[in-house]
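This protein record is not my work; I was only asked to verify it. The record follows directly below this note.
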Amino acid sequence: MTMIIGITGGIGSGKSTVLNFLEKEYGARILMADNIGHEAFEKNTDTYKRITEHFGKEILNDREEIDHTKLAAIIFINEKEKEYLNNIIHPYVLGRIKSEIENWNKTTRSNNNDIISTSKKSESTNKSSQTNKSYNISEKKHKKQESSNLLIIETALMFETGCNKLCDEVWGVITDTEIRIERLMKDRGYSEEKARSIIRTQLSDEELKEKCNEIIINNSSITETEKQIRELISNKR
């Protein structure tokens, strides 16, 4: 199975749990849009220059780095300024992801050709007495191939940024609102008001169910979540 899967969901839904399992269990290559987006704020980049030229030096700290708290305070109260920033960051992230996909595709095709070539050579040289042994080796190689053939793109803004168009499928992670709020208060120290205000700005569970190809419900134990992921992967083979 060779697939590019988008993973999305609101804050506190537990996307990291899903990503960690896909990486550990299936050897998936993970691309996190937030991490890539942070690169756009780094000093001496073109995006840094565009941001600072527009918002001014008041968003910088003593080391002339962009202070995300200061910048957030501006775009939180000004929708036009938020849109301006997004028009810088989102194209940068999409471009970087496209580049990563291109490199991944090249590597995947190369690995697949090597595996197919090795498999054919093995089939032509093995005798009937080695059939079972050959089958076991083939199975191991097949599993290894599947592990390297899974690319994950994670972002909370999957459809807003157009990242969904880069994916074969998009899987949504949904969790009851009260559970998300409890997690955010416990793990991030958010107030209930802050947690609810952020959740209100994101896609609802109903919208995710409508837009996504598959849904992972992350309300209970990690074991149950992992079971759902295994079933989804199994059904794609």
Q: What stands out?
A: Strands lie at 3-8, 29-32, 150-154, 169-174, 214-217.
